[in-house]
Structure to design on (402 residues):
């Protein structure tokens, strides 16, 4: 940091990434810990709260003290110390080993202040940083005796390729769906539930078909709330029943071609259910409009992933659930979801989907293909083919009854 950069920083005042101290404070460890748990920052020793430079003496001694404090944090905090004239600049770059504690307590930067985290805030911090996975935590509400019957178990065994003669407790423990405390995990409950809402109130999927391009008039509404695997199949089937399908007759054989690629829709639904934040009070939402299909998943992107990473790398928010869906062949290939969706759309001859990301939501938007006269487009008609289409809202417009 140059002298000019120091004066610019002081002129901006204290904030989320900067703190001024007249002299060496007794709570420096607390401040350093708070910056380490956030996005880094700088502490200026020798500057008053009002931004007046008063300076500090004996920089070498202070540097040793600061280094000792940084090393006493758990884990040790990386720190950079520099003298700019009479001011000692203590910089905490972005840290790699969050969370950090000092004196057995956790601190976080909130605005221009450092606050001690409560137990619930510590838990939330761990989840947000991807250090604890909610799908691996116990689900005490699920009882193997009361919530798992023979039919559900037989269905799960077929999907997860479990030998018929293996006891449920043994198989679930081997799959890490039962924890060391004997409770089934959240992921296990979501995969075995008859009604997921019993264990996660917002674990369902809400679907709606609208007339036109807005949410003014609803034509159909459905809610799916079985186990996660079943919801994937049911939601995809519902979407396919509402979008246009082109029937191509080749001699006496009829082929069906949805306006959007079925496998791309399935991948998007799997992503929405596998990577959503199950701690959120919101559910997965599917909207079909005249011009688009939207699949909305609560929770934003998982920790460690940015919008630029979409289609390049995969960071599952629920690795246990995602791994089980891969075992059950609901996931084609780990880490290829977004890229595969884009490839499938290109192969199908439709636009690649738009992915919108915010802190609370991830929305996948498929544009429904519309030609110049407002009817749905499909493959060109050849002499041996007779294409027949349904209308915009899934009602049959062809020769056969629906």
């Amino acid at each position: 940091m140059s002298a000019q950069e120091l004066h610019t920083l002081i002129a901006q005042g204290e904030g989320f990434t900067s703190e001024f101290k007249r002299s060496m404070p007794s709570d420096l460890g607390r401040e350093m810990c708070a910056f380490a748990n956030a996005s880094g920052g700088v502490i200026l020793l020798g500057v008053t709260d009002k931004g007046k430079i008063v300076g500090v003496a004996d920089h070498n001694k202070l540097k040793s003290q600061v280094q000792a404090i940084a090393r006493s944090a758990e884990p040790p905090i990386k720190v950079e110390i520099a003298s700019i004239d009479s001011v000692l600049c203590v910089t905490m770059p972005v840290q790699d080993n969050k969370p950090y504690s000092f004196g057995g307590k956790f601190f976080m930067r909130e605005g221009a202040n450092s606050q001690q985290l409560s137990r619930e805030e510590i838990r939330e911090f761990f989840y947000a940083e991807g250090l604890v996975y909610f799908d691996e935590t116990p689900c005490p509400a699920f009882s193997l005796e009361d919530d798992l019957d023979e039919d559900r178990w037989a269905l799960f065994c077929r999907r997860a390729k479990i030998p018929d003669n293996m006891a449920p407790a043994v198989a679930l423990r081997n799959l890490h769906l039962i924890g060391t405390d004997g409770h089934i995990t959240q992921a296990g409950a979501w995969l075995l539930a008859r009604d997921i809402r019993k264990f996660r109130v917002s674990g369902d999927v809400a679907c709606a078909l609208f007339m036109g391009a807005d949410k003014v008039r609803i034509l159909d509404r459905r809610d799916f709330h079985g186990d996660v695997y079943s919801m994937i199949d049911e939601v995809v089937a519902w979407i396919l029943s509402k979008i246009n399908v082109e029937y191509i007759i080749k001699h006496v054989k009829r082929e069906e071609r949805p306006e959007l690629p079925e496998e791309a829709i399935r991948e998007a639904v799997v992503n929405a259910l596998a990577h959503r934040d199950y701690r959120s009070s919101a559910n997965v939402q599917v909207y079909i409009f005249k011009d688009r299909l939207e699949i909305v998943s609560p929770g934003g992107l998982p920790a460690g992933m940015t919008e630029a990473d979409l289609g390049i790398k995969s960071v599952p928010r629920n690795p246990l659930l995602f791994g089980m869906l891969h075992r059950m062949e609901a996931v084609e290939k780990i880490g290829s979801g977004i890229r595969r969706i884009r490839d499938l759309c290109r192969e199908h001859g439709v636009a690649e989907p738009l992915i919108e990301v915010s802190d609370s939501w991830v929305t996948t938007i498929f544009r429904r293909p519309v030609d110049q006269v407002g009817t749905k487009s499909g493959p060109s008609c050849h002499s041996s083919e007779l294409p027949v289409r349904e209308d915009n809202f899934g009602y049959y417009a062809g020769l056969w009854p629906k």
Remarks:
- The first strand starts at residue 18 and ends at 21.
